[in-house]
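During the reporting period the student researcher (J.K.) took over the structure-prediction task from the postdoctoral fellow and processed the backlog of single-chain submissions. One of the processed entries is reproduced below for the supervisory committee.
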Amino acid sequence: MPNLRIYISLAVTLGTCLQACAYKPLAGSSIGYKISPTLREEAAAAGESNLYVQGWLQRVSQEEKTNLYVVALSAPQAKKQPREVVQIMPVGSGGLYGMFLPNADYQFAVFADRNKNRLLENDEILGWRSRRVSLLQNGPNSYFNLDIDVNSSAKSLPDDLLQEPLSVSSLPTPQYQPEKDLLSKRYSDEEGTLGLINPNAFLQKFSQIQYLQEPDFTDPRPTIVSVHGIDGTPSVFDYLEKQLDHTGFQSLYFYYPSGARLPSSAEILQRIFFSGDVLPRMKGAVLTAHSMGGLVAKGALNRQSKNSTPIALTISFVTPYGGVEAANAGINSSPFRVPSWVDVASGSTYLSQLFQPLPQGTQFHLIAGNSAGKSDGTISVQSQLFAPALAQAQSALTLKCSHVGIMSDPRAAKIYLSLLTNLEGKETLTRRVNEIERIARAKLTFAALAQQLESASLSFRVMDVTQTLRRFAIEGSGASLVLQVAVGQAIRADIVSPTYQRMDGPWPSTNFPEEFLEFIISEIQSTLEVDLPTDAPSNTPPPLPPAPNVITSFPPPVHLFMGLSATGNLGEQYLTVQVPIEFSMYWGNWGFGTDVRLPLFAPTIQTATADLKFHPFGVGMGPRLRFGDKNALVVAQGGINMGAEFGTLRFTEPSDDDFGRKEGDLIDLKSLASWSAYGSAHVGFRISKDFYVRAGLDGGSLFSPLSINVDEEKITLLQPAFIRGVAGIEIRIP
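J.K. obtained the following structure tokens:
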């Protein structure tokens, strides 16, 4: 994330140039216009007074594959007054839409580009919310539940909303599929900057719910929700993500336009991830935040209720809880003002109301950075360690790190992981269903439920959240409800709203019979033959004891090593070559290992009466100490071992081959053995995900030399002191 001070300085000193060049398409600034702007220009200019609206698109099943566009139109004040198109939001195949709009009265329509000409036309309307929505300047920061019924066969749809066709050729298709990692193009710096200067353009491209693997809302694992900072993206959490043991956690990311006002961002975060109104209530959650994301996260905590997903732990990195003084200069002097600066500025209304009591059962830990004496290069230490924040924190640590560098610092990662250790899911699953299988099961489940609803003569609409999470708005028998179905290790069905509010008027308030949900579940169960738990997660957050100093995991990771070793005995010219095979397990940095060395080559010792050849075997075991986590490019390992060297000495007839390749007739065999002790120091280089090239030295001593008398001459096969060079390939089994 670029330095916030740089942005403010550029805005102050080069504001006129920036406004004329980089923001020319916005047709104005958030301070004022030379002429009266249209609502559409105000929405594009990311004004400080813009408000957030969000709702569901309720589709009939045959409309599932259609890419939809939500169009916000100004509501006419007079009968013949034309409507202004204020914002167009592509939704693709998703079920949730959201956008920022100026203060005004609106109506919303849904269109589909059926003929693929990249134009929206009046005859392509699929849904219409006729009820007028008034966004008030002194009203809420966000307006939710602005749902739209999508039904192309409805007879009440207007056919004259648009004065002319709307071009959507420049609009992107929203990206809902998960990425492979957090360093993908979707999370590039350019996309973060787009969210800073044009929130609506950002929302046209990206869902605010991001993940690397399809989430499973039937899984008991705690869910980590990560919140980036200003001009940031989830890529800032890449290093931490790669340290996580995903058998204990699953991860979600709040990908939001950081230029928007913080009260709206906090409300969106809480509603989407924790309220149960978008994602199902989870058994337990962790909030992780970087920089300004910590202010958004704390605002979301202030909006928690007893029915929200319990947040057991909040961890923030380098968050300016005391505000940023430089933001005040940007607000007062810049011709282009980023709306979020208003809330980040020291003494802002948002910050003055931020430190409300934490929800019951929530622990708060903060990690500060100090790389420049009094700051991390961006945020002052005084702001990071703001007194009201310290008063609520269970711990506050300061590391010598920069504002962004702290997110890839091994010390910070170790602290972070130690705080998470006690939250790992204690409930174990006998079998985890992989992502591909879960998605396939979800398709079968949703199809089976739709079939049962149709056979029961019930009218319903569907709302997609993820590939394994779908809502069904059901109407019939004089009652209505919204049923949310999640598919994963099992199938979870939750009644979200037993008296759902229809867009054109309330549905009957009579609830379905209690047996209705049980009937649906039993029908799906008989169709798919899977377990269907219906109990809601407990409100009680998981216990959080103090963080331990040592990070542990079970089962521990296993390391297998195989290579070649060459051993030279001090005082002798003999060299033996062996094949070492090592097996070790690690708990954090400490581990225990066993190694076996198989003989490959040994020289022949020639005497007057016989040739002697000794192929020594070796074994050893002992503690190990390893530096470098599973994602480090370079690792170091040391150990102390107790073991033994042993083998069979072969006496053969003398041979004229100096290299011992031709062996004479066998004369005798004699077994030799000695205890040994040795230390090791190796360095490994990571060549792929779980493979390393490793090399190093072993050095030690035998308890007694291995020697024999031949023709009254004492021949020493192995001297007590030895040095062994080792090289090979290591495999890590998670």
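The committee noted the following: The chain has four domains: 38-167, 185-320+354-421, 435-528, 558-733.
J.K. will present the remaining backlog at the next meeting.
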